[in-house]
Every structure is written in structure tokens, then in C-alpha cells.
Design goal:
The structure is a single chain. With 176 residues, this protein is mostly helical. Helices cover 56% and strands 11% of the residues. The protein is built from 8 helices and 5 strands, in the order αβαββαββααααα. A 3-stranded antiparallel β-sheet has the order 1-5-4. InterPro entries: SocA_Panacea (IPR025272).
């Protein structure tokens, strides 16, 4: 399995985990915002992202690119993800498989669970407004949001920001 396939597999199980906690289905806006705020919490607390996805500053807030590609494939009826998800309507998805918890650490599940509790009852507009944070505001539309900006917007202190910067530098050196 190559790196991209591993990222996709991890994202599938993140989405399935969130969907399961939301009763099996959700609109993608809520799903993606819950994931974004969970990522932000995990970056602030532990200096690491939950997924290996990249968030882009879209009109209605940050959007994870791999997760969005999965959703588009499901919506278009591609069989690639048919054993995991079903499209519900134009903007909703249903998880039809159990998440594999081997893809999630305890700290990741804790941050996801907190994000679900904080955001599951928020409206589309409230989630959009909440996600239009400093990281989103400082990134040009449709461009990738830096994990550093996401952490800072979530309240990461200077020591944690430095740690994340160092981890990103090490990671980029490994793949040059």
C-alpha cells in the first residue's frame, strides 16, 4: 500500500467513526467541520494532526481534501467506497461499515468525541462562522491552510507551535 492509499484508508475510518457517533449519517459540512475542530484540538494538545489530510480554505470554511474526494466519489456512485458509504442526498452521506479503531488512537478519539459534542447541534451558518477562524481568514480562498495556522487559531502556545514546526520540518525532510 502506498502513502496515498494509507492516507485514504485512515480518512475512511475517521469519517466512519464520526458518522457512527452521529447516528450513522451526516451532511458533509457538519462532518468536515467536526473533523476540522477535532484536528485543531489534537494539534493544540499533542502537536500532531489526526489525519494526514490537508485543509483548504473554501467559502464555507475549511474542507479536508482527501475526505472531500472520497465524498465526491461516493456521490458519483463509484464502487471504490461502496462498502463504506452510501450517498443520502446531494450533501449527505451514510456510513455503512464499522470504523476500524486500529486507525485511531485514544487521544484522537477523545478529541473527535469532544468536537462532536461541541458541534453536532450547530447549524450550517453557526459552523461556518465558527470555522471562519484566524487560520481560515489568513489563507487565500481555495488554498491550503497551514497546520501551524490551524494550531494557532485553536490557541496553541509558542512552545507547541515550535514543536509542530519542527515535526513538519522532520516530516518534509523524510520525503524529499
Amino acid at each position: 500500500m502506498n502513502v496515498l492509499d494509507e492516507k485514504i484508508e485512515g480518512t475512511i475510518h475517521l469519517l466512519l467513526y464520526i458518522l457512527r457517533k452521529l447516528g450513522g449519517r451526516s451532511d458533509i459540512h457538519k462532518l468536515f467541520k467536526i473533523l476540522y475542530f477535532a484536528e485543531q484540538k489534537h494539534l493544540v494538545r499533542y502537536g500532531a494532526a489526526i489525519s494526514q489530510d490537508h485543509y483548504h480554505a473554501m467559502k464555507n470554511g475549511p474542507v479536508p481534501s482527501i475526505a472531500y474526494d472520497i465524498y465526491k466519489s461516493v456521490k458519483e456512485g463509484e464502487v471504490k467506497y461502496a462498502s463504506y458509504f452510501l450517498p443520502m442526498d446531494r450533501f449527505s452521506i451514510e456510513g455503512i461499515a464499522d470504523p476500524d479503531h486500529d486507525f485511531l488512537s485514544e487521544s484522537e478519539m477523545k478529541c473527535i468525541d469532544e468536537s462532536i459534542q461541541e458541534n453536532k447541534n450547530l447549524s450550517f451558518n453557526a459552523l461556518t462562522d465558527k470555522s471562519h477562524d484566524e487560520a481560515w481568514n489568513d489563507t487565500p480562498r481555495d488554498k491550503e491552510i497551514s497546520p501551524i495556522a490551524i494550531a494557532r487559531a485553536g490557541g496553541a502556545d509558542s512552545h507547541m507551535v515550535k514543536y509542530i514546526e519542527d515535526q513538519l520540518l522532520i516530516h518534509s525532510a523524510k520525503f524529499e
